[in-house]
Amino acid sequence: MATKEQQTTVIEAINKASTIWTQAFNIGDAAGCVAHYESDAVMHARPFGTFTGTASILAFWQKLIDDGFSEVEYVDPKIEVIDETCGVLTSNWKMNKAHGVIHKEVWVLQKDGAAKIREDDFEAKG
């Protein structure tokens, strides 16, 4: 069980990394997005498929950006701390050409204290 201080550390790291990820996406920086995934991360992007590893995940985000998607915004995000190094973010989301739900972003603190995504499970609904 994480202490209150550890919980705060996890939440702050996830909030910071998630904000930077969103900013990168919104300026069209797919590499900046992928910098927030662990090298062997798994991304379930419904209905598009499952992407494993940063090269595959980069290709997905780059295509989305190239197709004109931007202005992503998380709507009412929630973070559940799992332990002293891990938390799960869930949220609705919207952008200029789609909206949907983040079922589960598993963020893990790295040795440098930054959070990276180990597992990403989201759905585009329109």
Q: Give the oligomeric state.
A: single chain
Query: In DSSP terms, counting alpha (H) and pi (I) runs of 4 or more, how many helices?
Result: 3
Helix content: 25-40%
CATH topology: Nuclear Transport Factor 2, Chain: A
The CATH top-level class label: Alpha Beta
Radius of gyration: 14 Å
Number of discrete domains: 1
Calculate the mean pLDDT score and round it: 97
- Largest beta-sheet characterization: 6 strands, mixed
Percent of residues in beta strands? 35-45%
Count of DSSP strands: 6
N-to-C series of helices and strands? HHEEHEEEE
Explain what the structure shows.
- By secondary structure, this protein is α+β, with helices and mostly antiparallel strands.
- The protein has helices at 4-26, 30-34, 54-66; strands at 37-46, 49-52, 73-83, 86-94, 99-109, 115-124.
- Helix content is 33%, strand content 44%.
- A 6-stranded mixed beta sheet has the order 2-1-6-5-4-3.
- The longest helix is centred in the N-terminal third of the chain and has 23 residues, at 4-26.
- The radius of gyration is 14 Å and the shape is globular.
- The protein starts with a helix and ends with a strand.
Name the descriptors.
126 residues, alpha+beta, Nuclear Transport Factor 2, Chain: A, six-stranded mixed β-sheet, 6 strands, globular
Topology:
Blueprint: H1 4-26, H2 30-34, E1 37-46, E2 49-52, H3 54-66, E3 73-83, E4 86-94, E5 99-109, E6 115-124
Gist?
This protein has helices at 4-26, 30-34, 54-66; strands at 37-46, 49-52, 73-83, 86-94, 99-109, 115-124. With 126 residues, the chain is α+β, with helices and mostly antiparallel strands.
